[in-house]
Amino acid sequence: MNKGDKSMRALGAVDLAPDTYAWEIQATGLKVLVGRKRMAVNGLDLTLGRGVHGLLGPNGAGKSTLIRTMATVLRPTEGSLSLLGTPAGHGDQRALRRRIGYLPQNFGYYKRFTVREFVEYLAWLREMPKRDIPGAVQRAIERVGLADRADDQMKTLSGGMVRRVGIAQAIVNDPEVLLLDEPTVGLDPAQRVRFRELMQQLGQDSCVLISTHLVEDVATACSDVVLFDQGRLVFQGTPAELAAAGTPEHVGDSPIERGYTALLNHQADRANW
């Protein structure tokens, strides 16, 4: 995590008042209600700066709800959330969205669109300058290894390729905050390695948050781990610190998996006390 003032990029700068901020993402007492009763995010305090951060947690922990709130799809119910020094969930969010990249767990597309047309369409929705779109689209497609399929229709792609197109649209605007929900689903081992390398490159200049069930992806790609369960922060630290929380008695095939299990078990014991 990198604390300190950051100068804003030119894109969208005139629309946002703050020109400095301490953290790319900052949540204080954040609560997000889903439906009428379920508090999917419950009193979260979290700060994230530049780098690659892994968001771990079991099914139903609230990870996707948290990512969607950070992407300004959902509004906070209570507390505060700011991205790039700007409050999220209040007022016109278009200027902020220009500076965010977002890959949801499931995304729709027109099957007759080519890969290039789909990424161009998402660049247009983010209000990128028209003159910049062709070059940005080509660069994003190349970075996910789909240059040879750029003019193929989306309906001809495998599930893993569609996921890579989703990553391409998320990075097309060179976002300062990149939010990825289960980005490696459907990727083969070699593609996962390339994905990790790409994330490490992007994390040098951006705040990247990856929600995943694959603990080993976090161990190799992320400098920081956020463990989330029942809408609450259980742990934040390095992969090494997460691994150190476990013992050989805990379930898992690797030290980091055993640390993950140990912390979740401890959280469950506290909840039942």
Structure write-up:
The protein is an alpha/beta fold and 273 residues long. The protein is built from nine helices and ten strands. The chain has helices at 63-70, 94-97, 115-125, 133-143, 159-171, 189-202, 215-221, 239-244, 255-272; strands spanning 25-34, 38-48, 51-56, 78-83, 86-87, 100-103, 177-181, 207-211, 224-229, 232-237. It has a six-stranded mixed sheet, with helices on both faces. Strand 7 (177-181), helix 6 (189-202) and strand 8 form a beta-alpha-beta unit. The longest helix is centred in the C-terminal third of the chain and has 18 residues, at 255-272.
Q: Tell me how many strands there are.
A: 10
What is the count of helical runs? 9
Which structural class is indicated by helix and strand composition? alpha/beta
Low-confidence runs: 1-18
Strand percentage, roughly?
Answer: 15-25%
Globally, the shape reads: globular
Strand order of the largest sheet: 6-7-8-3-9-10
What gap, in angstroms, lies between the N and C termini? 34 Å
- Rg is 19 Å
Mean pLDDT: 89
Query: What order do the SSEs take from the amino end to the carboxyl end, as H and E?
Result: EEEHEEHEHHHEHEHEEHH
Major beta-sheet overview: 6 strands, mixed
Helix content: 25-40%
Please outline the helices and strands.
Layout: E1 25-34, E2 38-48, E3 51-56, H1 63-70, E4 78-83, E5 86-87, H2 94-97, E6 100-103, H3 115-125, H4 133-143, H5 159-171, E7 177-181, H6 189-202, E8 207-211, H7 215-221, E9 224-229, E10 232-237, H8 239-244, H9 255-272
Parallel strand pairs: 3-8, 3-9, 6-7, 7-8
Antiparallel strand pairs: 1-2, 1-4, 4-5, 9-10
